[in-house]
Specification:
single chain; 134 residues; mainly alpha; 4 helices; 81% helix
């Protein structure tokens, strides 16, 4: 990632990861007083931008991997790339389904959000930390 984008990218990913984490943890406590689905609808476009950023960064990192890199480095770069691919595929598939059904998704699709949110929190939080340290 370009040097001038590292700090803003880190802040963006960190804030979105934190927002998803807090809402994910706390939404069982406020379903009567807040529209939980509406909050997810607000977070989803920010997560979409984050998912694209994660996928792009992981792809660039994978392309820059040299053959002389340690096996552990190669493992983590490949694992991060494929985790970002899984996140992007699941997120956009489920999000587009949510948009097409006006938020009236079946239980199977709703269960995928658990995996998507968890993956997003881990990947965005980790990349945010690494970008900040660079």
């Amino acid at each position: 990632m370009e040097e001038r984008l590292k700090i803003p990218g880190s802040i963006y990913l960190g804030l979105t990861a934190l927002a998803v984490l807090l809402h994910f943890w706390l939404n069982p406590f406020y379903p009567d007083s807040w529209a939980v689905g509406t909050i997810w609808e607000v977070l989803a476009p920010f997560m979409a931008v984050g998912a694209v950023a994660l996928l792009t960064h992981a792809w660039v990192h994978k392309r820059r991997l040299t053959p002389d890199a340690t096996s552990m480095t190669q493992f983590w770069v490949h694992a991060t790339f494929y985790a970002a691919v899984v996140l992007a595929v699941l997120f956009f598939w489920n999000w587009f389904d949510n948009l097409a059904t006006d938020g009236d998704q079946g239980q199977t699709h709703l269960n995928y959000w658990i995996v998507i949110n968890t993956l997003y929190i881990v990947l965005a939080g980790t990349l945010s930390y690494h970008l900040w340290r660079e």
